[in-house]
Queue: 3 jobs
Job 1
Amino acid sequence: MNHGATTPGPITVYSADLVVPVTAPPISHGSVAVRDGHILHVGDRAWVLASLEASGAGSVSSPSIVESHWPGILTPGLVNAHSHLQYSGMAEVGAGRYNGFDDWAEAFSVSYDRGHDWRADAALGAAQLLRHGVTGVADIVTDMEAIAVLEDAGLHGITYWEVMSWQTDAWNNGGREQIISELALIPDKPGAGLSPHAPYSLDVVPLLEIPDIVRQRGKRLHLHLGESSFEGERVHADGNTGPWHFVGVESFRALRAAGFGTSATEFVDQLGVLGPDCHIAHGVYMTAQDRALLRARGTSVALCPRSNAVIGLDPPPVAAYLREGSPIAVGTDSLSSSPSLDLMADVAELYRIAREQGYAEGDLHERLLSAATLGGAHAMGIDVGPDRSGYLAVGARADLSFFDVAVGESVPDAIAELVEAGGGRSVATVIDGVVMHAEAAWTERVGA
């Protein structure tokens, strides 16, 4: 007798007029069968129900299986690959428009310094993510009060403790040990990592050692890169960017002050920050060489176009990322720099930008929807293993999003509408097979 065996739980079949698995073709009148938080079957509704009945699990005419049907689109749960949920109480900053990073940072600092209930604000942000169909998030936390928001809300993803403003002397005199102890305070559920803020806000020594601290513990890295025009490559008067060396260079700012035009991306690459266990946010001010470095290191970039627009930055080079085959994800950033935490609104903006930048390929809808699901999961390394997410397949987590998008005779047209105008149209969010949020329009029904 196997005393460790557990009795399988009940089965729920989530059906929709269109199911988009992301890693397989779209399925008209499809279903996803779920048990114990994971996916049992994905496919045509009739086939899924027949397979369950053939296996002895039961049928929708019996109480052993519950079916929830939605006359719209079902996708994998969305993954927000860059956010700061604790800033959800700073929406007055994100509602403004600014003339660049420094102008925005001044407004941000005024609001931040007023004081906030960071835990409550983070919980507010998490609730908004759930309302918008997000099931996983890369959340950067600056104040310890907000450290457990993902665990508390039941969201998947990774909590990244932000590390910034460390100079070498302070780092060597207790800073390193402080960060190690703070990293240990991050809940292991759902995941933990460090976020060295940006190349210009840390000295070389901390930037060099933070990746080692993380990798020794099997955690992950996430940083802002290419968000400020200050980080872009500069050219000397003689037309060359010029070589640089570590000797005598204390920071990226010192490097620039010494007259070197090296980009921030090359700078952090030389320090060993980039890699497949690291993803970056923004990636706006990137040359083709910078983007090639990201690809070579297996580093994904989370694009946050609405945040960039609020701050007054250039749009990200999304068309170039797509043409070059760079791994991309989508992020909202925070309410301190974005009008909402609706990830599909950022997807729609990326679509507009890509077309404006000349990307004319017919795969744009598919690739952007993949970026908002599988791309975000891949950026955080949660697209593999027993608890993989970001797509709909047998064994993956049962993380699902439902959208109020009518499905007519043309499946491509329905997916196009979701990508181009999917903001505000999430109606239900399921995490580990459990409905975490549902709008009034959502109706759950039992049986066929």
Note: Confidence is low (pLDDT under 50) at residues 236-240.
Job 2
Amino acid sequence: MNTENLTYGNIKYQLIGLTLPLILSNILQELYNTIDTYMVGSFINDNAFASIGISGSIMNLFIFIIIGANNGISLILARYYGEKNYKKFRKSIFTSIIIGGGITVILSITSILILNFILNIINTPMELKSYVMEYLNIILIGLISCFLYNLCSSVLRSVGNSKTSLYILLLSTIANIIMDYIFIKIFGLGIQGAAIATVLSQIFSAVIAVIYINKKYPYLICKRADFKLDIKNIKSILDYMTMSSLHQSSLYIGKLLIQGAVNALGTNSIIAFTASSRIEAFPNSFAESGGTAISIFISQNKGAEKNGRIKKGFKTGLKLMLLMGMIIISIAFILSKPLSGMFIENNINAVNEAASYLKVISIFYIFCFIGSSFVGYYKGVGMMNIPVVGTILHISIRTILSYILIYKLSLSAVAVSTGLGWIAVNIMQMIIFFKRNSDIKKDAY
């Protein structure tokens, strides 16, 4: 199955070939946090377990700024790859390293300085605060390793090679499991051990990725002639990085605000939300992976100026996403309680609360999959502002309704609010899509 040149061939199989490794990669990425959560819950105590949940909300905000920036970079690279303009491809990688690396260092320093302020804003319980600080200080220092790995993954995704990113991430995840056990259980480093294991495994994956790209795609490796910063290229990369980062980070700003509402309910609800969030991350991975596959497919074909394949690719991708969404909805609804019980022991109230949340939100998941399909389309054609506006609309609805309803519906309030936010975004996306296509048809005449 050809996925390295998406400008010809069977569209359905290409999208499936792109999506499956991305799904598994995103699931493995989630396992970084899930493994930390399980290890900490098993080898330390409940407070440490709850702290990982709070830490995840904050950590993901900064990590997804980096991931968002690299997703934007991958779209530019995919377009140049579709054009077969390898010179611009290499120059864009160099520019991305300079700009992205610099921004990541600034982000790392800033996040550490404002960490205590953030914890106070989201009403972090005092008994959990020290655990969160210990874990996040190490994670935030190591953000540069996260950037380097995700940049390498962006290069591989842009050329349609999502399988290798999966294999590298699998090796990294295995390394993370081993180091978690060594640092937490054997060395007794507690929650700091989990953070050290995560950072070291990211460094490991970045090194492996660089070695592979150098061997497999030597023509994409920057040469001395490429070590130049072009103003036009800088502007283009900054635009894509900024818009994609805003899209990703806005989503996690919303999650951070929701964490503040949940924290006010007490430790039991925090434990329930931590467990359900870990479970919910996996369905989200399916939706996000499908959207990413659509965006890469469309971006390569936009570079090759194949508008017919862009339209067919989006329609095919949307159908596949609807099918995948229905399967995920069924699993999440039916297995909500057993899945919750996997993360929570000896706390039946927290298990029931987490299961109730999962059942309610699974009803709305089809709208998440539809929305991710449109996000892939808009990113692929270069309309980066639409996903950002959609995300801001979603988190606004989700946050406001959650704070209004949370004391009446507990965690189910977050699920209902999230679902209503997805529906609103779907409506906005469809209106813009049909208007754009109508305008294109008018211009054709």
Note: The chain has one domain: 11-444.
Job 3
Amino acid sequence: MRSVRARAALGATVVVALAVVAAGLGVLLVLRANLTDQAGLQAEVAARETAGQLALDVPYGKLEMSDEEDHPVQVTDEGGRVVAVSKDLEAISGTGTDRVTPQPSPAATEKSDDDHDGHDDHDDDDGVSITPGRGEVSTDAPHFSNGTATVDGDSADYRFASIEATNSAGLTLTVHAGAPLAAEQRAVASVRGAMLAGLPVVLLVVAGVTWLVTRRALRPVEGIRREMAAITASEDLSRRVPEPGSHDEIARLARTTNETLTALEASVDRQRRFVADASHELRSPIASLRTQLEVGAAHPELLDVEGAVADTVRLQVLAADLLLLARLDAGERPGKARVDIGALVHEEVSQRTGDRIAVTVSVPEPGGPEVTGSRGQLARVIGNLLDNAERHAESSVAVAVRAERGGAVVAVTDDGAGVPETERERIFERFVRLDDARARDDGGAGLGLAIARDVATRHGGRLTVAGAGERGARFELWLPGSR
């Protein structure tokens, strides 16, 4: 199924069906157990009534068995012989023996003979003389079992309770009395039928409600999808998807989508400006180099070799800067080498033999702060900061290294005109020059500080600028220490 609504409706229906079936089975089991217990209680009452009579030595033929049609009774002796049954009992099962014809008990026969020899106090209708006495009925919990019985031609299921009774002669008899399970079976069947009849209706209602609720909930998602399809087709990144007024997950999805579109639009605009600015920056040295070469080809004596070399070097530096920015934009990760930042600063300053202003260095002794990253990229950052300071300083450039807040700080200070506070973030944008009148050869392409900040960010650090007292600027590069 490709539809979320269909999958949600099907899933909810299946879950509800399983829950209803499980609950229904539980209800049926509890109902059956309760009704069976009630039948067992009725059977126990009937069995104890008969057992009480046996304990009082009531003759088998004179046992009063109440409601014999609903409570069939079977009495067995210690040997398992049937000595008495209720009226019209034709068949029985589940009591240990299926006999329904009474047989004389040997113990009873012997007692009868003894009573005749001893001149019985009275005779019963069967000619058995019994001396009145008192036995006892077992107080143990009865034994329950399920079985069937046929009474006057009608067969049914019964719950049997078995109670033991001992007469005055010490004869132990077991009374099996049953209670019908028809009411339990009818009740369970009725409840089961009602559940089976109502289950499809419940499932249809659940499926329908889930379908409608899911459809309503997903309606904003469809609106987001249509708008995204329109944005893709038109390539207009200024459009935004509709944001529902709710504060649920879909509203957050819409807001996140719009934030993504905003970031994407800004990235595309930045890329377009970058391409345009790069083309503009490349056009000037290429045009100058071409002009010089054409003049040199026509008039070799007029060829400005130094100017051609300078333009070539400028093109080489600009191409290297553009290539590094492209790698950074592509997500190139810095290396994992441990770099002694103080030694790196010393190395970079020692290679700057052509600077117009000498650089003052303040670096800790060996064993200073170390950082983790790409040595080449970090050297590029330090070099760009020194180039910027040399370009704007009047008489002094200083670089200092110190440990701070679990990392290392490289501070480059110059005594130039400084950076206006309102422009301190703008100078880190690509191809930005605050002094538009500065010659390109002197001012560069405006990529040095942009590259420096990008590299610092990729290394988990930051690059900021602030004033350096009354005059000048102070650039601080903070990098996390190696671990």
Note: Residues 237-332 form a domain with the Helix Hairpins fold (CATH 1.10.287.130).
